[in-house]
Amino acid sequence: MMLFQHGNLRVRKLEKKDNYLLAKWLSDPTILEFYEGRDNCFDLDKVNKVFYASEDNEVKCIVEFDGIEIGYFQFYRIDDETKKEYGYLDENIYGTDQFIGEVEYWNKGIGTLLVTSMVKFLIEHKKADRVVMDPQTRNTRAIKCYEKCGFKKVRILPKHEHHEGKYQDCWLIEYHK
């Protein structure tokens, strides 16, 4: 089921047949450097357990460009506990995670197109007041993309994400309509 389309970019809900794509992407050290960790490789079995068996509130999607599956995107409503941790009040706040799994599509503006399209979708269709992300502070390429899309750094989340054997600092960044 298609969620939204913007020009050559299309985002659709994750289907069972996409498990091989996730296993391919999440076993690539280049992708794992910032997403999941190079010490946390996924095979088909792990993909099925993590992405298909969970009963969480994430909407999981595949990103296509020119009809080719190139990445993953998920969004979710931020729960009250996380809102409190981040210092937000009773707003409708969504979080997202995404990656372009086909490295040859990096540095072509597709990430910027994806993030701006996703923000527009969440504001228009989910009535989001804010969209937040928490990239690792060392992920400068992604942070530049997010800032280009209108996200602002709010504050550092110290030792927020366990990644490759140690806790990494992350930026809390937000898009506020």
From TrEMBL:
InterPro entries membership: Acyl_CoA_acyltransferase, GNAT_dom
Start and end residues of each N-acetyltransferase domain: 9-177
GO molecular function, one term: N-acyltransferase activity
Protein name, as recorded: GNAT family N-acetyltransferase
The keyword Cell membrane appears for this protein: no
Biological process annotations from GO: response to antibiotic
SUPFAM superfamilies assigned: Acyl-CoA N-acyltransferases (Nat) (SSF55729)
Highest taxon of the lineage: Bacteria
Keywords: Antibiotic resistance, Transferase
